[in-house]
Design a protein that fits this description.
alpha+beta, seven-stranded mixed β-sheet
Length: 207
Amino acid sequence: IFRRSKRDIYSKKYCFEVALRTFIYMITFRLLEETDLIDRVSWINTPSIFNNMSFDQKVTNERTKAWYERVKSIPFRYDFVLEEDGSLLAMGGITSYISSSKTAETYTFTNPILHSKGYGTLMLYLGCRFTLTSPNFECLIAYIRPTNTSSLKIHERIGFTEIRESRHGSLPMAKEGHLCFELTSSSFNKELLSQSMLNSINTSLIL
């Protein structure tokens, strides 16, 4: 019988993989499609998500479709979806790319009825891994409200750290009411997910 040490059993990596193991073989990681937009609008307008983002007003299907048509061709912008058997689990993305510093902003949100199941962590992990394995990216920035404790924990688990001095070109140091966190290739916790489990995810994106 294969035995793990107590240190392995209680490590963050092992606990996270145990939580994922029951469903990861059915998960697809892909780019956002137009058919996803109705769910996206519904999720964003849910108070638990809307109150932690930077929207001035509720989003609509019409404006979201126009947004999608506008951003889908922007270089080095990526909007992702995590899906299981046709059901959307989480969404995330890479925005506001600055070529001079190879820096971009990241965002993540989870299906409102599926919080605290590990999908947000997996979405953020895969988005960061996809981005930081590219030579075009060296740093990712996330803006998080200090009251959003679940998001703070997820980002810290991935390797994000809070920063207070700007070194990222035109990206603001902080959006109003948000803390600023950064992730670099060296601080990214790649070992959070093993290669065998990573290989089990259905995706055409390079991870």
